[in-house]
Amino acid sequence: MDTKSQIVDVPISGKPKKRSTGIVGLDLLLDGGYPPGSIIMVYGTPLSGVDIAAQQFWKVEGEEGTYIMNDGDTEVGMVDATELHPEMYVQQMAGGRIIVDSLSTVVIKYGIDGALKFLHVARDEMRKRGANLMVIVYTDIHTPMEMTRLMRAADIVLELRSEAHQSEIERTLAVHKIKDAAAPQRLLPFIITDHGIEASTTSRVV
Fold first, then answer.
1. How many domains does the chain have?
2. What CATH number is given to the structural domain containing 48?
3. In a domain, 11, yes or no
4. Sheet holding 97-101, edge to edge
5. Domain-embedded: residue 5
6. Range of 24's domain?
7. Sign of the dihedral defined by the CA atoms of residues 199, 67, 162, 181, in that order
8. 20 to 30 A from 175, CA-CA: which of 34, 40, 118, 202?
9. What's the pLDDT tens digit per position in 4-52?
């Protein structure tokens, strides 16, 4: 038997290659990016940059993805899901980078149980394909119990914060949860530019 035919491209660590977040500083913080097959929950206020982080992840060059928009204006390439039931979302998903903007709308329209049912079905699909699903959740509109249940259902939980200090706005990103791994212990400072989110690769924004 030709043993060469059994060789696969596996990193030295023996683990599947991670998928870039689209943000250099966050890739460094997460040791390469998001593990394939994982569900990422990104939450914050509408002004914190959660939608920008999602679009940067979706638009990383070299890989197809699907942006499912159910509560905003659709841009070129996005799927208009305003009239779609969450059970139909999986049929729309193509590529390795899947975004649902937002999961908050799913909770409001179909209840927390409907949202969790969608995540359960989507998780099986993501793991089978080695893809990643990122869902946007907005703060201050869900009950504490709903937020807890959504966080428990996600493999990775990120929070984007925006705070005003005198004459400046301070923006930071926190990784609160990574399934089967220790979450980073520090906040990641970032700024929002014309090109999107630029995160610090050291201890400050450059």
1. 1
2. 3.40.50.300
3. no
4. 79-80, 65-69, 97-101, 132-138, 39-44, 156-165, 168-178, 188-193, 196-199
5. no
6. 16-199
7. negative
8. 118
9. 333 333 344 556 799 999 999 999 999 999 999 999 999 999 999 999 9
pLDDT tens per residue across span 68-122:
999 989 999 999 999 999 999 999 999 999 999 999 999 999 999 999 999 999 9
In contact, 92 and 79? CB cutoff 8 Å: yes
Asked whether residue 191 is assigned to any structural domain, the reply reads yes
Q: Which residue bears the tokens 């596996």?
A: 10
Using CA atoms, how far apart are residues 171 and 189, in angstroms rounded to an integer? 6
In-domain check, residue 115 = yes
How is residue 182 written in tokens?
């220790």
Cα 134 to Cα 68, 164, 178: the distances in Å are: 10, 27, 14
Closest to 103 (Cα-Cα) out of 127, 66, 64, 133: 133
